[in-house]
Design brief:
The chain is mainly β and 153 residues long. The chain contains one helix and twelve strands; from the N terminus they run αββββββββββββ.
């Protein structure tokens, strides 16, 4: 027979168990990358990229040791990143940059973009999108050419 005392003991037991389990995830501070405020974090496979405002792009595989990933990247401020099939893309203060080797080297991919300080980039349905101050552009050829969107209300 279940009594009021046994119900209270059961509730107390459950409360003790619940209190012993951390309610929130545990965060660990990692050092670096140093060189500017981090504007974006992007995970691509085993690589963690950090785009900074002032020192370009960093890459790490453990969030402890970092190295620059700036070869060919003609920008020190990286605001966003995206993956589109075989390419990585970075939206920067100097337009869009594309990498076909996982961020080892970068090349400009901004033909057709008139405003080059780009705050965001995304890929979906075979279309790459980027945008900055009042402008949105799209590319259907992985950034080789861009078209300004005219249907934004």
């Amino acid at each position: 027979m279940i009594t009021l005392i046994s119900v209270r003991r059961m509730l107390l037991f459950c409360a003790l168990i619940a209190l012993s389990i951390p309610a929130f995830s545990q965060w660990t501070r990692c050092d670096g990358p140093y060189g500017g405020a981090i504007k974006t974090l992007f995970v691509d496979g085993a690589n963690l990229f950090a785009g900074t405002d002032g020192d370009g792009l960093f890459v790490s595989q453990n969030a402890i040791t970092w190295s620059h990933s700036n070869a060919g990247l003609n920008a020190l401020s990286v605001y966003a990143m995206a993956r589109g099939d075989a390419y990585l893309f970075a939206a920067t203060e100097n337009g869009v940059f594309r990498s076909s080797d996982g961020g080892g080297t970068w090349s400009a991919a901004s033909s057709g973009i008139t405003y080059h300080v780009l705050a965001t980039i995304a890929f979906g349905g075979g279309v790459l999108y980027t945008g900055g101050k009042n402008d949105v552009y799209y590319s259907t050829d992985y950034g080789s050419s861009w078209t300004a969107s005219t249907s934004i209300v």
